[in-house]
């Protein structure tokens, strides 16, 4: 019987003491390095980063070994293609020590609170109260509650592997990253990603919602940029009615998707684009 090769030392360092025992990885990795936070003194790296563009097919092979390796792969992109520091990943512009645990947060309560925050009047807002309410019509300022999990759906792993290939082919600057996380939803928190910092300084809140989407929609975290997030979705909404409920969650989670996304800037228009869409992309200004 051929035994699987153990994790190399630079990958074992990603785990807490004793948590790397028995972990294996048979997938050859390109040249890379562990990355620590530039602001937090720590012997434990936040993640491992490939030095160059992610090879085709690598994300899927690493995802398939997650159960044995404990390492969730991410396709990481920088703030700017011309950025020599490859921010925030290459220079360690991350804060894992400031994050709580995703399990400490109720995703339904978070979405409800964020909805109230984003639909409230703003003294600096250029919209009238009526115009602001129209953005989230027919719900207005009333939180409609979480979307119902759809029945059925495709294989989450196959959908995620396909999206990863699309990202590698369409964005040649992306690099492979590895994070010591039990599930993809937690990877952004473990890595100390601060992309949504203008809305929350604790990425564990984001991960709590991502956990819920993993469970309800077969979502998988695939790509992460400076302030962007790309998910594969095995069971997206299939009707406009169900898409409206999901759109409400997206607005609570990332209002810039509607406020600064594709016109017209309304929940209804955004929902139309969610029907049967197997990838969800978020951008925080």
- Spans of at least 5 consecutive residues whose pLDDT stays below 50 are none
Strand content: 5-15%
Order of helices and strands: HEEHHEHHHEHHEEHHHE
SSE-based structural type: alpha+beta
The shape, in one word, is globular
Overall pLDDT, averaged?
Answer: 94
Number of H- or I-type helical stretches: 11
Radius of gyration: 19 Å
Domain count: the total is 2
Tell me how many strands there are. 7
Q: Can you describe what's shown?
A:
- This protein is α+β, with helices and mostly antiparallel strands.
- It has two domains: about 10-100 and about 160-235, no CATH class; about 105-150 and about 235-285, no CATH class.
- It is built from eleven helices and seven strands.
- The protein has helices at about 10, 60-65, 65-70, 105-120, 130-135, 155-170, 185-190, 205-215, 240-255, 255-260, 265-275, and strands spanning about 30-35, 45-50, 70-75, 175-180, 220-225, 230-235, 280-285.
- Pfam families: DUF4253 (PF14062).
- InterPro entries: DUF4253.
Give a brief description.
This protein is α+β, with helices and mostly antiparallel strands and 285 residues long.
Topology:
Blueprint: H1 9-12, E1 32-35, E2 47-50, H2 58-64, H3 66-69, E3 71-76, H4 107-119, H5 129-135, H6 156-170, E4 175-180, H7 184-190, H8 203-217, E5 219-224, E6 228-233, H9 240-253, H10 256-259, H11 267-274, E7 279-283
Parallel strand pairs: 3-5
Antiparallel strand pairs: 1-2, 2-4, 3-4, 5-6, 6-7
Helix pairs in contact: 2-6, 4-8, 4-9, 7-8, 9-11
Domain DUF4253: 175-285
Region (Disordered): 22-46
InterPro entries: DUF4253
């Amino acid at each position: 019987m051929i035994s699987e090769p153990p994790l190399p030392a630079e990958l074992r360092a990603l785990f807490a003491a004793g948590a790397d025992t028995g972990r294996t990885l048979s997938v050859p990795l390109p040249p890379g390095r562990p990355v620590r936070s530039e602001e937090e003194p720590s012997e434990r790296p936040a993640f491992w980063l490939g030095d160059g563009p992610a090879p085709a097919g690598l994300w899927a092979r690493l995802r398939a070994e997650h159960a044995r390796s404990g390492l969730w792969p991410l396709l990481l992109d920088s703030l700017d293609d011309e950025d020599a520091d490859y921010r925030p990943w290459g220079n360690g512009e991350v804060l894992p020590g400031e994050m709580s645990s995703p399990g400490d947060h109720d995703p339904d309560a978070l979405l409800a609170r964020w909805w109230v925050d984003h639909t409230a009047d703003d003294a600096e807002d250029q919209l009238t109260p009526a115009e602001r309410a129209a953005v989230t019509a027919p719900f207005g300022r009333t939180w409609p509650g979480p979307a119902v999990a759809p029945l059925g759906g495709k294989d989450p792993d196959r959908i995620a592997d396909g999206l990863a290939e699309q990202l590698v082919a369409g964005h040649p600057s992306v690099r492979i990253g590895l994070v010591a996380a039990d599930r993809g939803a937690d990877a952004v928190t473990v890595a100390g990603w601060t992309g949504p910092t203008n809305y929350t300084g604790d990425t564990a809140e984001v991960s709590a919602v991502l956990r819920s989407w993993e469970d309800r929609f077969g979502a998988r975290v695939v790509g992460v940029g400076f302030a962007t997030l790309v998910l594969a979705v095995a069971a997206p909404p299939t009707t406009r009615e169900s898409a409206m409920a999901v759109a409400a969650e997206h607005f609570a989670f990332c209002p810039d998707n509607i406020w600064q996304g594709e016109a017209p800037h309304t929940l209804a228009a955004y929902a139309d684009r969610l029907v049967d869409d197997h990838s969800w992309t978020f951008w925080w200004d």
